[in-house]
């Protein structure tokens, strides 16, 4: 949504409802249970939580139009990452510890983004424009960082000797957290300072056009963005209870929780990426998609690692052979897809097929 449009009601209404819901739950000491009342609460919570996440992304977009690319996309990515870290750590350290949730969520994000979202954007763009272009240099920067980080965090733990896989020892995890943050920091410097032109639409439309946004509206969006992020973090505990209850009710496999969390945090960003592809701005779609994957590993894994160390909880990171094969296939396809600077319908369909296989294997491993 353009920053020039009037602020939609949902952009301030859902953050306000989230604040009221958290205040009501805290004041009454409400405890979620599987009952009719619990079902109503779960529906209300999910609607408000989804709405608040969308509101956070809207305000991020408003601010992003003012500051221009690639800083705008970076702000969107960081906002979503804050929500992701809050949800993962809350569920992992809840009443029913889930040491594998971070791994499942990070892997789900990579699969959803690099196959589902990228595939859908390319497919839609291919149907509408036959071919779409983007900066190969920028895509290569994303992929090089993503492949390195994914291998270090999701595959290497299965082959360490100090601690039996799929775990890292405390010293190993600390070192991995450090190099992960350093690598992501260098990527940010490359994206925002050193090679900004790699991540900007080839038409040269670098500025978001938000210079006409009033200072009052900008300040309001900043405040509402902070409120949205804070309320999502505060409601994460109740969301974790709902996830546990739903998973137990339908007999879902452990990876279902990671998939659900990933879908929640990626849905608003995915809508923005698809809208950009429909407007023939595949570069922005790639920035949103691959940037969110890179931020998920580069920021989420270190944050969760620090949290699990502080609370003395185990952290499972290594993927099983089946998921390792899917990850390898995803990166191989991505290198081919982003290797020429032009995409078409077939590239998108191939990624969508791989995503369908991933979702099917979650429920029928």
UniProtKB/TrEMBL annotation:
Predominant subcellular localization, coarse grouping: membrane
Q: Which residues cross the membrane?
A: 39-59, 71-94, 106-127, 139-159, 171-190, 217-236, 242-267, 288-311, 323-339, 346-364
Q: Does the keyword Transmembrane apply?
A: yes
InterPro entries, from UniProt? Alkaline_pH_Ca-Antiporter (IPR052946), NaCa_Exmemb (IPR004837), NCX_ion-bd_dom_sf (IPR044880)
Alphabetically list the UniProt keywords: Membrane, Transmembrane, Transmembrane helix
Keyword match 4Fe-4S: no
Query: What is the protein's membrane topology class?
Result: Multi-pass membrane protein
The record places domain Sodium/calcium exchanger membrane region at: 39-192, 221-363
One of the record's GO cellular component terms: plasma membrane
Any idea what this protein is called?
Ionic transporter y4hA
Q: Which organism is it from?
A: Bradyrhizobium centrolobii
């Amino acid at each position: 949504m353009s920053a020039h449009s009037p602020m939609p009601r949902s952009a301030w209404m859902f953050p306000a409802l989230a604040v009221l819901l958290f205040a009501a739950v805290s004041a009454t000491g409400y405890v979620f249970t599987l009952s009719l009342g619990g079902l109503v609460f779960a529906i209300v919570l999910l609607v408000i939580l989804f709405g608040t996440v969308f509101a956070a992304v809207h305000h991020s977009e408003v601010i992003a139009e003012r500051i221009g690319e690639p800083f705008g996309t970076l702000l969107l990515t960081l906002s979503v990452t804050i929500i992701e870290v809050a949800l993962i750590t809350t569920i992992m350290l809840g009443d029913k510890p889930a040491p594998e949730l971070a791994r499942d969520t990070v892997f789900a994000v990579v699969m959803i983004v690099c196959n589902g979202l990228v595939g859908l954007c390319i497919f839609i763009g291919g149907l509408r424009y036959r071919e779409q272009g983007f900066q190969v240099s920028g895509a290569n920067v994303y992929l090089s960082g993503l492949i390195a980080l994914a291998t270090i965090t999701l595959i290497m733990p299965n082959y360490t000797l100090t601690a039996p896989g799929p775990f890292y020892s405390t010293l190993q995890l600390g070192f991995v957290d450090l190099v992960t943050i350093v690598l992501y920091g260098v990527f940010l410097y490359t994206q925002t300072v050193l090679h900004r032109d790699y991540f900007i639409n080839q038409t040269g439309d670098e500025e978001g056009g938000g210079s006409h946004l009033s200072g009052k509206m900008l300040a309001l969006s900043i405040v509402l963005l902070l409120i949205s992020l804070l309320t999502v973090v505060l409601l994460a505990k109740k969301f974790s209870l709902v996830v546990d209850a739903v998973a137990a009710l339908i007999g879902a496999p452990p990876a279902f929780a990671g998939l659900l969390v990933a879908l929640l945090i990626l849905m608003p960003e995915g809508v923005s990426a698809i809208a950009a592809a429909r407007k023939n701005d595949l570069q922005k779609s790639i920035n949103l998609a691959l940037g969110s994957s890179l931020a998920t590993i580069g920021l989420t894994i270190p944050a969760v690692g620090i949290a699990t160390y502080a609370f003395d909880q185990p952290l499972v990171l290594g993927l099983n052979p089946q998921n390792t094969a899917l990850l390898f296939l995803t990166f191989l396809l991505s290198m081919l897809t982003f290797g020429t600077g032009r995409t078409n319908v077939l590239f998108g369909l191939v990624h969508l097929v791989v995503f369908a296989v991933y979702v099917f294997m979650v429920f029928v491993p």
